[in-house]
Amino acid sequence: MAPVTEHATVRCTDAAGLADALDGAHVLFAFDFLSNALPHAWHAAGSLEWIHVASAGVDALMFPELRDSDVTVTNSRGVFDGAIAEYVLAQILSFVKDLPESLRLQRNRVWKHRESERITGRSVLVVGTGPIGRAIARLLTAVGMTVRGSGRRAREDDPDFGTVTATEDLPRAVAEADFVVAAAPLTEATRHLFDARIFAAMPPHARFVNVGRGELVHTADLVEALRSGTIAGAALDVFETEPLSDDHPLWEMPNVVITPHNSGDFIGWRDTLVDLFVDNFHRRLAGEPLRNVVDKQLGYVPGT
User: 242 an active-site residue?
Assistant: First the structure.
């Protein structure tokens, strides 16, 4: 942060000290993007002009007072795209090659010949056509998968997805997919988008991958869909409540892979986040447009 301290007084704080640190501050770098401390400290934000969030998702910050204010919000769009796309590919390969079973057999010293699936020609629906969804689409297309998108509006000429179906047509779209990847931002329109109705529309051999937000999914419905065989499996990096409680039924399901919200956390990601903030800080000093300005009513950067 040295390039910032040359031009500004920097205060570092935790959630408990946020109100005191906000007093008189013009800029907030919200590194803990899941913290809910800001609404409780908002009374001290009278001088605040700009918030930069160390995340692509800004749902944790979109409380009414901030939405209605003149404070500019920017996010860290672009930092995690490639890493998350690689994570999705890894999970798909793990499913089709049944790597978890291979590891179980290895631990038990069992030599058992098995056949595996191919990914070439398999169909993927990516729900969320922003930068992360597009990075996923490009990578999966490159390895021979057939990829379509689901977003706010339907179109047939998308450069990364080709065909994009509208969200209201999601039941029909998932019915044609071998893999469904959730990569949408969390908004009131997408909260619990994946519920019993959507899982029932998926083919019984389909797998579900969530790299968006846990609240995109009605978790109890997902558990039931996995338990009943409505869908074949799930790879989950995000959950409605994090960390996932140690008694949650998802832990014990053999057709589920759980990771602790780290699909985008490549080696060096923290430095990259700081570099993006520093770049935006210097843009602000120079009077240049900021990168990744969030539409606070939509809850994400327009055009994604």
Answer: yes
